[in-house]
Write a structure and sequence with these properties.
By secondary structure, the protein is an alpha+beta fold. It contains 13 helices and 31 strands.
Length: 527
């Protein structure tokens, strides 16, 4: 690689920011995503999620079931340019019945934006997603949304971040009032006030001030709110965590921004700050050691497979996170798992379901590859070495159902649907020993609904799901496995790779089995 090419590679990587937005349902995630796309010029009009009757759907919700329910079910990928940066947003479902797809998408991000509703604080779903980010040590930047409504005290919200998630926080701006009294936010780093102008934030109104005790603030917000702001910020200066860039990068401190996505208030300033705080594409671990984004040879891994994104074509798209090197359309790469060279001829980039054929892309970018059935989640593609990236985690299912097909003549389509949706990661499939019954395991109830809906609409098969009483799945590693010891409130099944898995109805049943099988390992994830 010439020094000119190397320089170009370094510059392209430095431009990129790849992040996921994590939140609980109704915290305003789709709205925030739309507003970010609006700033990038990627869409002309942000479609608000609630206006479903108008037939104008949010750009990031494309599957029919999402349009009907007004929620994001699958994770979609959007890309746009802003201020000299190339931004890849991974939009994750926030619905309480979300799925493994969400967890896996986080492995393709270098950073996460955590969105919190100012009235509700940290909710259960956010906690689960946060734990996945934490495990990977990725930086988290927090946006506390819906300031235009009455919400909780900002100090209370920060305390909750620490108590529930175990992460310290450092607010980079601070609200002046809330709900009906909202006047603006005070920018602690740039000592200025961004004024709240109701619904019209096409032009941001900023007022430079000498500090939070500047008389301009009192003139703008009134005596009461100005005094409250002084008091709160004095307290923050003394008792709050100082901003520490290194701690943010390690995921030990989260910078906090306040705003209102629906009013476009604080979103652009958040985006500008985010670009300074978020890391550029990071190295990934592999069997050949750490792979740096600036390395000459192209490499990447499949983190998601989505069938039937375009109903007219019944296609399957494999989503690839580029880890290193430069991608060029038509290039040949090694599909490491199958040991074959393949040509990447129709790569696509996304604005939700609108796609463009991509000619070139760099580390940090997400591209979609047409999949004739050769890819699985976790597959590595590489130009030179037979490197394999660290396996993507599978997550232990918590809800189970036995599945039967209503029309026995449709067995072939049924099998195809089960196989494809398993590969896509929509469901996990287990087979009972002896009877060969099929039991599905999922992380969230919504996965079952998506499974039924897609089996009917995409494969023409009506299925019946019979809920099972199990709550836990544990992969069993034991050379002297005795199936008879798994009879009390539990059952022994096999996963798609023929590993033994025990399903338990409750913790007592699991503890009993552990006591009876002292030589066995009980693993939460597949070995």
């Amino acid at each position: 690689m010439s020094s000119k090419q190397q320089n170009e590679m370094v510059q392209e990587v430095a431009k990129r920011r790849t992040f996921a937005i994590i939140s609980h349902p109704d915290a305003g995630k789709t709205t925030l995503t739309e507003k970010l796309l609006l700033f990038g010029g990627a869409i002309r009009l942000a479609g608000t999620v609630k206006g479903r009757k108008v037939g104008k759907f949010a750009t990031s919700d494309w599957m029919e079931i999402e349009k009907q329910r007004g929620i994001s079910v699958t994770s979609s990928v959007m890309q746009f340019d802003y201020n000299g940066h190339r931004i890849n947003i991974l939009d994750t479902p926030g619905h309480q019945d979300f799925s493994e797809d969400t967890y896996r998408t986080l492995t393709a991000a270098d950073c996460a934006v955590m969105l919190i509703d100012s009235a509700k604080g940290v909710e259960a779903q956010t906690k689960k997603l946060f734990q996945v980010c934490s495990m990977r040590g990725i930086p988290i930047i927090t946006f506390i949304n819906k300031l235009d409504r009455e919400g909780r005290n900002p100090f209370e919200l920060m305390e909750e971040l620490e108590a529930v998630l175990g992460i310290r926080s450092c607010p980079l701006n601070w609200p002046i009032g809330m709900g009906r009294d909202l006047c603006g936010v005070y920018d602690r780093q740039k000592t200025r006030v961004e004024k709240f102008q109701g619904d019209s934030h096409d032009v941001i109104e900023l007022e430079e001030v000498s500090g939070y005790d500047d008389p301009i603030i009192e003139k703008m917000a009134g005596e009461h709110l100005a005094a409250q702001l002084r008091e709160e910020l004095e307290l923050l200066d003394v008792a709050g965590d100082p901003f520490d860039f290194e701690k943010v990068r390690k995921g030990e401190l989260t910078p906090v921004f306040f705003g209102s996505a629906i009013n476009n208030f604080g979103v652009q300033t958040f985006l500008d700050s985010f670009l300074e705080l978020a890391p550029q594409p990071q190295p990934r671990k592999s069997t050949e050691g750490e792979v740096a984004p600036e390395q000459e040879d192209f490499s990447g891994y499949i983190f998601k497979i989505q069938a039937n994104m375009n109903p007219a074509h019944r296609d399957r798209i494999a989503f690839l996170r580029i880890v290193s090197g430069k991608f060029q359309r038509g290039m040949s790469v090694k599909h490491v798992r199958v040991g074959k060279e393949i040509k990447l001829s129709q790569p696509q980039q996304f604005l939700a379901q609108d796609r463009d054929i991509v000619e070139e892309a760099y580390a940090g970018d997400i591209i979609g590859l047409f999949d004739p059935g050769i890819f699985r989640i976790g597959d590595s593609l590489s130009q030179k070495n037979d490197l394999i990236f660290d396996e993507l985690p599978t997550f232990s299912p918590e809800i189970f159902a036995k599945v039967t097909v209503k029309n026995a003549l449709k067995h072939k389509q049924y099998q195809k649907g089960i196989d494809q949706l398993t590969e896509e990661g929509t469901i996990q499939v287990f087979r009972t020993i002896g009877f060969e019954d099929i039991i599905l395991g999922v992380v969230g109830q919504l996965q079952f609904e998506v499974f039924e809906y897609r089996m009917k609409n995409e494969y023409g098969v009506d299925v019946q799901l019979h809920r099972q009483p199990f709550q836990f799945a544990r992969w069993i590693v034991d050379e002297k496995l005795d199936p008879s010891k798994f009879r009390i409130n539990s059952t022994l099944v096999k996963d798609k790779k023929d590993n033994y898995v025990a399903l338990f109805e409750n913790e007592y049943a699991m503890r009993t089995a552990m006591e009876k099988n002292p030589s066995a390992k009980f693993l939460e994830n597949a070995p």
